[in-house]
């Protein structure tokens, strides 16, 4: 936040006087739109739904029931469910033009497309029992997303569409919660036809992103700094960063490299003219507890549930003094994997460990130049991933 204040001050002091920051690029209208509005902006039917989880969280779901050219086809369409990554939202699936964004490509290919939002992000920020600003509201990590969010959303989608199964596409943490849910909840796993995993994350021992430095800070100090509630809230200054600062010539490179420093470098593949759209919807918020959970995985090198800090607390939650280990050998859902050779978050070595655990891999492609965000934002995703993914889905429509 301090950096944002500094950059904002530079804008107002230097920008208007000598053009120090350069001319501002034309703002994309989607930078001020919701995910539903973005869908409609590109000429697609847009529907929104609310789903209540067993523990009271109200989750937002977006839907594109059909593409531009197949609106007259009233036959039931195969259902695809897209789940975003950490700090993200459903907006990421429609953040690029319609010929590049996966959600639009799937809709035009004859699929009924649904996009979930995990608890705590900008589209899922309420609970029927707890106020959003309470510690109780934010006492969750991706464990609860796997245990409560995915079943609630998937069951809702299947009931609404009358289908028995759906195809699941996850990016980053969207794959993590799928691995956790489908390996522990066999009834839910039976409702998944295929899991398509983009930049999958389960093991994080070799992660090289600078965010890993957080794991070096003692937990009590981190608690003092971050508290017990929300982290990376999308605030007014971040909206200003997206729409006023990063589009300017001087700061555009800084913003772009800031993304690369977190996720890995692939400068040729990032459409910088869309930075205002990307940054106006990200980060979409997350709980401090979830960050601590990932911090735990960075240190331990295991794919396990959240450590509640004592054997007594762990006994209350898991019936054992240590956190539950997610046994990926029990995940019988067919899995197709795409990972990046330049991904600092889903490091190729950790992905290899993951692949060695999964019993039913039907496809694997490693894209040498891809970083962690390329899987949803890169210019060449249709050629590298999406067209092949759609072909696989078409071969497995029944």
What can you tell me about this protein's structure?
The structure is a single chain. By secondary structure, the chain is an alpha/beta fold. 39% of the residues lie in helices and 14% in strands. The chain is built from 15 helices and 11 strands. The strands form 2 sheets. Strands 1, 2, 3, 4, 5, 6, 7, 10 and 11 form a 9-stranded mixed beta sheet that branches. The protein has a two-stranded antiparallel sheet with strand order 8-9. The termini are far apart.
List the keywords.
globular, 398 residues, nine-stranded mixed beta sheet, alpha/beta, disordered N terminus, 14% strand, two-stranded antiparallel ribbon
Architecture blueprint of SSEs:
Layout: H1 2-18, H2 35-41, E1 47-52, E2 57-64, E3 79-83, H3 102-108, E4 112-116, E5 126-127, H4 142-161, E6 166-171, H5 173-184, H6 186-189, E7 192-198, H7 219-226, E8 230-231, H8 236-245, H9 249-263, H10 275-281, E9 286-287, H11 288-300, H12 311-318, E10 335-340, H13 348-357, E11 361-367, H14 374-377, H15 381-395
Parallel strand pairs: 3-4, 3-6, 6-7, 7-10, 10-11
Antiparallel strand pairs: 1-2, 2-4, 2-5, 8-9
Helix pairs in contact: 1-8, 4-5, 8-10
């Amino acid at each position: 936040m301090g950096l944002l204040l500094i950059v904002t001050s530079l804008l107002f002091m230097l920008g208007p006087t000598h053009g120090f920051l350069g001319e501002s690029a034309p703002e994309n209208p989607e930078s001020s739109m919701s995910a539903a509005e973005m869908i409609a902006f590109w000429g697609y039917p847009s529907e929104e739904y609310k789903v209540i989880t067993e523990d009271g969280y109200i989750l937002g779901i977006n839907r594109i029931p059909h593409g531009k050219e197949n609106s007259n086809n009233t036959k039931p369409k195969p259902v695809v469910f897209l789940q975003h990554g950490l700090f993200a939202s459903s907006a990421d699936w429609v953040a690029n033009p319609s010929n590049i964004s996966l959600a639009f490509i799937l809709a035009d290919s004859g699929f009924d497309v649904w996009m979930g939002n995990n608890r705590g992000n900008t589209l899922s920020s309420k609970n029927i029992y707890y106020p959003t600003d309470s510690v109780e509201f934010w006492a969750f990590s991706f464990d609860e997303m796997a245990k409560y969010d995915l079943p609630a959303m998937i069951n809702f989608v299947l009931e609404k569409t009358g289908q028995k199964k759906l195809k699941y596409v996850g990016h980053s943490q969207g794959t993590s919660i799928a691995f956790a849910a489908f390996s522990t909840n066999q009834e839910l796993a039976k409702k998944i036809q295929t899991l398509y995993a983009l930049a999958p994350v389960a093991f994080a021992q070799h992660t090289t992103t600078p965010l890993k430095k957080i794991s070096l800070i003692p937990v009590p100090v981190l608690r003092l700094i971050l508290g017990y509630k929300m982290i990376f809230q999308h605030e007014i200054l971040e909206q200003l960063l997206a729409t006023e600062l990063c589009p300017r010539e001087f700061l555009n490179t800084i913003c772009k490299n800031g993304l690369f420093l977190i996720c890995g470098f692939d400068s040729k593949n990032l459409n910088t003219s869309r930075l205002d759209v990307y940054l106006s919807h990200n980060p979409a918020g997350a709980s401090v507890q979830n960050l601590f959970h990932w911090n735990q995985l960075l240190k331990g090198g295991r794919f396990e549930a959240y450590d509640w800090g004592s054997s007594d607390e762990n006994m209350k939650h898991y019936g054992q003094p240590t956190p539950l280990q997610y046994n990926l050998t029990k995940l019988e859902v067919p899995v197709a994997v795409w990972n990046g050779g330049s991904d600092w978050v889903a490091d190729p070595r950790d992905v290899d460990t993951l692949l060695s655990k999964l019993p039913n891999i039907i496809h694997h492609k490693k894209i040498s130049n891809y970083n962690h965000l390329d899987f949803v934002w890169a210019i060449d995703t249709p050629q590298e991933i999406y067209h092949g993914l759609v072909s696989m889905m078409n071969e497995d429509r029944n």
